[in-house]
Amino acid sequence: MPVDLTNGKPLAWDSAKLDADTKAMLDNLQPNILQAHVRESMSLLLVQFGDGADGRRFLRALVPLMKSARKHLEEVRDFNRAKKRGTPYVGVGISKLGYLKLGESTTKFTDNAFKSGMKRRKDTLSDPAVGAWEKHYQGEIHAIVLIGDASPEPVAATRTRVLALLPKTAKILGEEKGEGLRDAQGRGIEHFGYVDGRSQPLFLADQVAAEPGTNWNPFFPLSHVLAADPLAPHPSRHFGSYLVLRKLEQNVRAFREAEESLADALGFTGDDRPLAGAMLVGRFRNGTPLRLHGRPSAEGHPVQNDFSYRDDPGARCPVSAHIRKANPRDSRDGGLERSLGVMMARRGQTYGRRTDKPWDDAPPATRPTGGVGLLFMAFNSSLQAQFEFTQQTWADNPDFPAGNTGHDPVIGQGEREVKVRFPTGWDGKKLSAPQKQVPQTVTMKGGEYFFMPSLAYLKSL
Ligand code: HEM
């Protein structure tokens, strides 16, 4: 039975009743796509091949270091049951130019964004000129090797094994080091100090069962992340996913200044001041959604995700907030993010070390202005319909979801000319006078689009 990507039920990956094609899919799919792999420590190697045959041999030689999605899910189950440590994550992505260098034809790939490459999409995405990107992103990137684990040691050891396989004709154009950032309670945060990675589309039965909800359905069909691997021996059983990688530098000082200025402009004092930042993000720093609460929930309270924006025209969570622009969820079973197939699986990691405490209230002047940020990564079945749509049609569009909403205050790119109005308090019926939008504090420093092929393809090289 062909793999049903549109099945309305979450995938019971460990069911004895699984059909042969779905089993083959799980045995040949790379991990970290259907379920996030632990990646507290990460190394991303950007590779350029000088010789196609050598490139094919290198990619094939990586297979013994990799595991399947099924193996990963078994490791997660064993960890949850018996705290048994899993093995490192090794993932491989190939760019359009990479496939051409390997001697493949890319006509069977259907995604136009992938087939153009990120450099040629810079106008669509309002990205900086390629000459302003970091040097290693300016060249022809053919492949990416992602290595991740819970601590730096297994990552370093695996990285050494990967590099030992690299042929003389290939070179590492550059390397990114991801390092998880956590707040005082141990929650994963991004550099502006907010809990991140909480809201995800879930594909698997055990994950969906662990997140019951009455206002938001976190289940999404496999069609949101899987694409047939067109070059694999059996594309009906062998699947992959499109990966977007973007290095997004965060000017933390400027963002903190923007939060303070907005709090001043809206007249917030005392315990109300954190509302300003929450209005930009859509959640307080500890993850409490503004849709549900006007104050951060007590520490120890699980970070909530069971909400939709139905019945909130923007009095609680402004329509311009980052999480509302990026996921408009207007009902339990979703809105455009589901009907248009936009929701993607975010798998990013922070980069750059901090000496300050990103979650506290220390003055903006003590915050870094660069050198830290997010290695934004997400898996898509269509880069055009998911990542690009979110960035271009929602985040960069001042008229989404309604006229004069403004850019996404966190990731929006392009001139921020429109003035915006905010609620003057949580659930406030009164709106402020039009305000200048907060300045852009996230800068794209480079990136690329990749396809993460099936293990069956890599073995066939
Ligand atoms: C959620 C920050 C880049 C799309 C979030 C959250 C934070 C955050 C704090 C809330 C946590 C959660 O709900 O999981 C950032 C920062 C970024 C960044 C600091 C850049 C430096 C991006 C990009 C996109 C994106 C480039 C897509 C184009 C999303 C989506 C959600 C989200 C879809 C989930 C919203 C929801 O389901 O409620 N982000 N983000 N983010 N972000 Fe970002």
From TrEMBL:
Record flagged with keyword Iron: yes
Listed GO MF terms: heme binding; metal ion binding; peroxidase activity
Pfam families according to UniProt: DyP_N (PF21105)
Keywords linked to the UniProt accession: Iron, Metal-binding, Oxidoreductase, Peroxidase
Required co-factors: heme b
Family according to the record: Belongs to the DyP-type peroxidase family.
Official protein name in the record: Peroxidase
Origin organism lineage: Bacteria, Bacillati, Actinomycetota, Actinomycetes, Streptosporangiales
